[in-house]
Amino acid sequence: MSNTITAQPRRHIDLGSVGDVPPITGAAKEYGFKVVAVNRSLTPTQSNENIIVPKGSPLKTLKDLKGKKIAVPQGSSAHGLALNALNSVGLTPKDVRLVFLDPAAGATAFNTGKVDAWSIWNPQSAIAVKNGARILAKGLPPIDQTSSYYVASEKSLDDKAKRAALTDVLKRLATEFAWAIKHEDKYAEALSKEEGIPLDDAKASVKAFETRVTPVETADIAAEQKLADAFLDAGQITKKVDVKSITDNLLPAGYDSSKLKVAS
Q1: Which of 39, 117, 162, 262 stands 20 to 30 A from 72 (CA)?
Q2: pTM here?
Q3: Please, are residues 36 and 179 in contact by the beta-carbon 8 Å criterion?
Q4: What are the residue boundaries of the structural domains of the chain, listed by start?
C-alpha cells in the first residue's frame, strides 16, 4: 500500500505518510513541506511502538537503560519515543548508546544480543514480544503519540489545482481505511504482503494499524512541538521548529473518516 501520489521530475513528491518525527527533522532541514492531516489510531490505548528488551533481560525500568545500547531507526517515530522515554526518567542520549539501525538490522542486533533494547514499531515489536521479548515502555502518551501524519509539499499546496487534488486523495485514502476497518481479514492479508510477514502475525497486529483520518488539531500541534523541542535539546536537530507554522489543514474541521459510510 502506498501513501504517496505520483512523483514529479527531480523526485518531487506531492503527498506522503510519515510518523511523528519526520515532520520535525524535515522542517529543521527546510525540505519545504507542511503537515496537512492526521492518521489517528482507533485504539489510542494500544501502543503502535514500544521499547522492548530480550527474553531474560535484567532490565526492569527505563532508568535501567543507563549505559546500555538501544537500537533505534534514526529520525523515526521510534527515535522520538526513545528520546521522550529517556527524558521522562531524567536521562539523556549521552547516558545511553543509541545504535542507529533500520528495522531489519535492528531485528538482527536485538535477536543476537548485540543491543540491550530496541525502540521499534509494530509489527516488528509485536513479533518480538510473541517470541519472548518483553515491553519495557509502551509508546503511549505522555511519552509518545499514537498518530501519524500526512505531509504535502509547499509547492503543491500553493497550486490551486494540486491542492484540490491532494484533498481528494486524502478523502479517498480515508475511505479506504474506513473500508479496511470493516474488513480486517482483507486488511491483514494486505499487511502480510506489504510487510513480508506471516498472515498470523499480520492478524495479531492489525488493530494497531486501524486508523481514522482527521484534520490536525491543537493537541497534535502541541505534542509535535514537545517532540521538536526534545530533539533540539538532545542535539538531534540544530534549528528550532515551530510546528504551527508548518501546519496547513486540507480537511475541513470536524472531518472524521471513521464516520464515513462504506460498502460492506
Answers
A1: 39
A2: 0.78
A3: no
A4: 9-42+147-259, 49-138
In this structure, are residues 107 and 119 in contact, taking their beta carbons and an 8 Å threshold? Answer: no
The superfamily in CATH containing domain 9-42+147-259 is Periplasmic binding protein-like II (3.40.190.10)
Write the class of the CATH domain 49-138: alpha beta
Nearest to 192 by CA among 183, 202, 184: 202
